[in-house]
């Protein structure tokens, strides 16, 4: 007899499950440019997704989606297969995201690091990574013996130039003699090229290596060469435990959670988000005690000041390489200037590739 | 003792059926892999091979993806049939894209029915010229065309990088590594509203027909086939080897260039660093899976295109790792080469003789 009950119970549960399914469960989709195991950019977005999933919200991701003709199809498939909110996490998805958004007005789209919001269902978001660079500059200026900082840069876009400038300004403040040497690798992720660049910078006398690329190769080269380094995007400490002073961490989790809840509850609105240390979108990995407790304290204080707004990464006077004033004494650069930044500040060597 | 013997008579029908067998074996292999990964194999295969093409949009995407693969593979078949190993179709595609894209930028904000044809022709010409480098080096300086054509892929990639970062980058694009969006007059006409399938498919079909005509109905086609079967015979017959080598490379390069220009004027609409997800290399699999035969290549390009779409769908619905698509492509080639071996060679198991014991 109980078997019969069990059977009917199962069929009821089955029907219930079926009807719930038909009710179109709220789903969030993610499009990644790299593999989830890159230990950098995509890894951090995936951590953000995990935080959304932990809320009990169903999520889907597609990794290693090329930024070419394929991106549009993947984004469209996510929209078509019932995803209500879609995060496209690389700059190259900007046009495809806007194109698909036009055809799916009821689906919300969030594009990372872009500037086009052509439809009311597209938001953009990015982080003020440059605030982290200011902290790196402070440490670099204090820790360097050769007064030469090596910087591995990806593409000459405003975000990267902003990082170089913020770092250089902060380093100059504590050490007026520093020089920033840059190698452009024209890639976000290429361990081979990145390690060659790191080695070249070390050979040119840099005893601090920092990177605006995503692989762990540069910190590993620095570890071997016995120079200081900084991790990028995620905490890379375990790849170079002696060499890494700290890492700038992209923490997307709070934003992804907030936006997912908003979209689920119907309170999602189009916006352009640019969060930093204050909101926690930019976070710092634990500081290496090898730099001495005094310096750690200084940096922690500076981090607090940047977060509270007491300090700003781009406080005047700021000069360009030729000595023209970019920001007057006492003023701070506004977001418009930061967003379009395309000149080096004084003290950076070389020219921006054009 | 195992002895391997060459088979003298290979049936033509079996020769063309082995790719089907290879695909069948790949499905079985795939099912086993899915099972090991903890997925229901039938369901996974359904998401992989049926769901992506179960609606009009999916079918259109399949054709969008298969178009460049088919074009490049058709071109490669000329080279491969005549024993010329052009491995650099990817570079020829990119160079064709660069030349076509440059012309498209030249015609920025310029209307006229002639704009698109000029862009397409210049793209084909670009690919053709780029492919002539390994051909001329091979014929006149006896260099290895595999190495030269492969290395030129990196040259083309770096040139594209340089152009989109520097001189050709969008003046309003905040230095991001991409050009402007081409004007409407420089874009392939879309065939159906809401779908991405574009006029490039006609170029592909015409190319397939022309290559069939050349390969099977002309003296050049005959020369190509004879040289492929036996270079010595071709020499005795008095064929001009050098000219033929250059011509097959030109055809191959032009096809790859067309594929490149089709991508940038079709679904992409601008130049940036990622105009091809290695179509030029994948097309090598397509060419062999299609038995270097124009009709076979059409089917092969559709199947390989499906492995790309399937990998995306399977990841969306089941979170199967996306790299399974590449595993499937690898398996198809593996099973094809494996069955080819058994097709052309006999394996004999001989008993051990007493004195060997």
Helix content of chain A: 40-55%
CATH topology of the largest domain in chain A: Rossmann fold
How many DSSP H or I helices of chain A?
11
Structural class of the helix and strand makeup of chain B?
mainly alpha
Roughly how many Å is the radius of gyration of chain A? Answer: 23 Å
> Can you tell me the CATH superfamily of the largest domain in chain A?
Response regulator
Q: Largest interface, with Cβ-Cβ < 8 Å? A: A-B, 37 and 35 residues
Order of secondary-structure elements of chain A: HEHEHEHEEHEHEHEHEEHEEHEEH
N- and C-termini, Cα separation of chain A = 81 Å
Please report the distance between the alpha carbons of the first and last residues of chain B.
Answer: 12 Å
* Overall structural domain count of chain B: 1
Mean pLDDT of chain A: 90
The helicity of chain B comes to: 55-70%
Percentage beta strand of chain B: under 5%
Q: Count of DSSP E strands of chain A?
A: 14
The rough form of chain B would be described as: globular
The strands making up the biggest β-sheet of chain B line up spatially as 1-2
Number of strands of chain B: 2
Annotation keywords:
heterodimer; A: 354 residues; alpha/beta; Rossmann fold; 6-stranded parallel sheet; 6-stranded mixed sheet; 11 helices; B: 357 residues; mainly alpha; ABC transporter involved in vitamin B12 uptake, BtuC; two-stranded antiparallel sheet; 13 helices; 3% strand
Can you describe this structure?
- Chain A is an alpha/beta fold.
- Chain A folds into 2 domains: 2-127, Response regulator (Rossmann fold), CATH 3.40.50; 129-250 and 284-339, Rossmann fold, CATH 3.40.50.
- Chain A has 11 helices and 14 strands.
- The termini of chain A are far apart.
- By secondary structure, chain B is an all-alpha fold.
- Chain B has 13 helices and 2 strands.
- A two-stranded antiparallel sheet of chain B has the order 1-2.
- Chain B is globular, with a radius of gyration of 22 Å.
- The mean pLDDT of chain B is 91.
- At the A-B interface, strand 2 and helix 3 of A face helix 3, helix 10 and helix 12 of B.
């Amino acid at each position: 007899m109980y078997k019969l009950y069990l059977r009917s119970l199962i069929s009821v549960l089955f029907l219930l499950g079926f009807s719930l399914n038909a009710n179109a469960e709220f789903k969030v989709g993610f499009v990644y440019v790299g593999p989830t195991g890159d230990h950098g950019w995509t890894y951090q977005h995936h951590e953000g997704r995990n935080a959304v999933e932990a809320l009990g919200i169903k999520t889907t991701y597609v990794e290693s989606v090329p930024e070419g003709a394929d991106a549009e199809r993947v984004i469209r498939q996510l929209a078509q297969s019932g995803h209500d909110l879609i995060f496209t996490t690389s700059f190259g998805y900007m046009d495809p995201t806007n194109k698909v958004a036009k055809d799916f007005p009821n689906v919300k789209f969030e594009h990372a690091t872009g500037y086009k919001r052509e439809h009311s269902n597209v938001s953009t978001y990015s982080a003020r990574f440059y605030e982290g660079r200011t902290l790196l500059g402070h440490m670099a200026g204090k820790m360097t013996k050769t007064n030469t900082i090596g910087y591995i840069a990806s593409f000459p876009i405003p975000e990267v130039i902003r990082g170089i400038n913020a770092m250089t300004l902060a380093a100059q403040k504590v050490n007026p003699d520093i020089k920033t040497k840059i190698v452009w690798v024209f890639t976000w992720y290429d361990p081979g090229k990145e390690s060659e660049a790191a080695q070249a910078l070390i050979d040119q006398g840099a005893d601090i290596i920092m990177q605006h690329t995503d692989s762990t190769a540069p910190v590993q080269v620095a570890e071997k060469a016995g120079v200081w380094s900084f991790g990028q995007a995620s905490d890379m400490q375990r790849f170079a435990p002696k060499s890494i002073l700290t890492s700038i961490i992209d923490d997307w989790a709070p934003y992804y959670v907030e936006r997912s809840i908003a979209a689920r509850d119907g309170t999602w609105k189009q916006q352009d988000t640019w969060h930093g240390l204050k909101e926690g979108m930019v976070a710092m990995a634990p500081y290496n005690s090898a730099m001495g407790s005094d310096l750690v304290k200084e940096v922690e204080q500076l981090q607090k000041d940047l977060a509270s707004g007491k300090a700003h990464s781009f406080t005047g006077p700021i000069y360009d390489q030729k000595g023209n004033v970019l920001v007057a004494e006492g003023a701070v650069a506004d977001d418009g200037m930061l967003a379009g930044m395309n000149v080096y500040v004084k003290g950076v060597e070389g020219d921006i590739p054009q | 003792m195992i002895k391997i013997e060459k088979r003298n008579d290979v049936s033509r029908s079996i020769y063309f059926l082995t790719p089907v067998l290879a695909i069948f074996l790949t499905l079985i292999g795939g099912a086993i892999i899915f099972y090991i990964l903890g997925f229901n194999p039938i369901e996974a295969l359904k998401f992989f091979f049926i769901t992506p093409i179960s609606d009009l949009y999916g079918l259109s995407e399949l054709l969008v993806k298969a178009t460049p693969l088919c074009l490049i593979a058709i071109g490669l078949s000329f080279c491969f049939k005549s024993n010329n190993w052009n491995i650099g179709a990817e570079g020829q595609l990119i160079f064709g894209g660069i030349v076509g894209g440059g012309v498209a930028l030249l015609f920025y904000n310029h209307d006229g029915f002639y704009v698109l044809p000029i862009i397409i022709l210049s793209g084909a010409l670009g690919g053709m010229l780029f492919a002539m480098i390994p051909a001329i080096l091979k014929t006149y300086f006896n260099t290895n065309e595999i190495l030269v054509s492969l290395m030129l892929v990196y040259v083309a990639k770096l040139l594209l990088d340089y152009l989109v970062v520097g001189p050709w980058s969008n003046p309003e694009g905040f230095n991001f590594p991409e050009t402007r969006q081409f004007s409407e007059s420089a874009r392939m006409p879309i065939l159906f509203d809401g779908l991405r399938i574009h006029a490039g498919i006609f170029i592909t079909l015409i190319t397939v027909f022309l290559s069939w005509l050349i390969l099977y109905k002309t003296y050049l086609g005959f020369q190509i086939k004879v040289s492929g079967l036996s270079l010595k015979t071709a020499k005795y017959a008095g064929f001009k080897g050098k000219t033929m080598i250059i011509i097959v490379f030109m055809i191959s390069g032009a096809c790859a260039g067309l594929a490149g220009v089709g991508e940038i004027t079709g679904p992409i609409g601008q130049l940036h660093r990622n105009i091809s997800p290695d179509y030029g290399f994948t097309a090598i699999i397509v060419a062999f899976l299609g038995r270097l035969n124009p009709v076979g290549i059409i089917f092969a390009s559709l199947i390989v295109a499906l492995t790309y779409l399937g990998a995306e769908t399977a990841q969306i619905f089941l979170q199967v790792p996306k790299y399974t698509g590449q595993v499937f492509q690898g398996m198809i080639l593996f099973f094809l080469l494996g069955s080819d071996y058994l097709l052309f060679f006999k394996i004999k198991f001989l008993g051990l003789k007493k004195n060997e014991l």
